Amino acid sequence: MYKPFVSLKKEPIRFVVAIPTINRADLLNETLAKYFKDFNETPIVICDNGNQEIISRNHNFEILRPEANLGVAKSWNLLMEFADNNGATHVLMLNDDVYLGKTETQIQSVLQIWKNMHFINSYQQWSAYILTVQAWKEFGKFDENIFPAYFEDNDAHYRMKLLDMNMVYTEKLNPVIFRNSMSIEKNPKLNESFFKNRRYYIQKWGGPPEKEKYCIPFDGNLH
Questions:
Q1: Dihedral of alpha carbons 77, 83, 88, 92, sign
Q2: Pairing with 140, which of 99, 153, 156, 167 sits 20 to 30 Å away (CA)?
Q3: How wide is the angle at C-alpha 147 spanned by C-alphas 192 and 47, nearest 5°?
Q4: Residue 184: Cβ-neighbour burial (10 angstroms; 0-12, 13-18, 19+)
């Protein structure tokens, strides 16, 4: 199932900005007003899980509105699918409660510096990261059994490690405004899945993050 990953395809770099959200349109709208300038020529796509009032612009912008909360993993997958369907090679995924403070030119520079990287992450807990569409397809997409949040990032990271994908962490993606768990602050019920998802992760990989034992999910047992 898992094998060494093939190097990146040589094709022009095209990225989209993607942001999942559920209940912090107040913070998102503040940053979108800035992103509309920072990423004027770059498509921005929102996955709105909370049917919120979100500001818009008349070009390079789309809001996906699922009927119910998809959770983080499925929202990320939906946004990656949108990018793939629109010819993007990379996705800059952002939390709705941070402000990146970088321009599209600066992001293009990051992509040129690390053009052989499949995954480029900030040091701020997956609040801002870049993932190639190719890598997302290869590692098997984000695990939608992990719902609504917690451990979907650990799971994807471990699968990328198993495939020996090229990954780097950089302060160049650190948001200039970083807030943590603001959706949970507004709705504490979103925090209730932590221990359930931790148990699932341990069942899947034989241990918690950084202490995994299995190289294939559930050690090859049907689940």
A1: negative
A2: 99
A3: 115
A4: middle
Query: Per the structure block, which two tokens stand in for 164?
Result: 């020996």
The percent helix, strand, coil of the chain (3-state, each to 5) is 40, 15, 45
Burial (CB count within 10 angstroms: exposed 0-12, middle 13-18, buried 19+), residue 220: exposed
Amino acid, single-letter form, for residue 140: G
How are beta strands 128-132 and 90-94 bridged, if at all? antiparallel
The number of angstroms, rounded, from the C-alpha of 88 to the middle of its chain's C-alpha atoms is: 15
- Dump pLDDT digits (tens) for 93-143: 999 999 999 999 999 999 999 999 999 999 998 999 999 999 999 999 999
- Is the distance from CB of 96 to CB of 20 less than 8 angstroms? yes
CB atoms within 10 A of CB 4: 9
**The pTM of the whole model exceeds 0.85:** yes
Among 180, 183, 16, 185, which Cα is nearest to 98's?
180
Q: How far apart are CA 215 and CA 205, in angstroms?
A: 7
Looking up tokens 């699922």 gives: 66
Rounded-to-integer distance, Cα 156 and Cα 141, Å: 8
Tokens of 91: 């996705």
Tokens 């990261």, residue? 129
Q: What domains sit in the chain, N to C, each tagged with a CATH number? A: 15-215 (3.90.550.60)
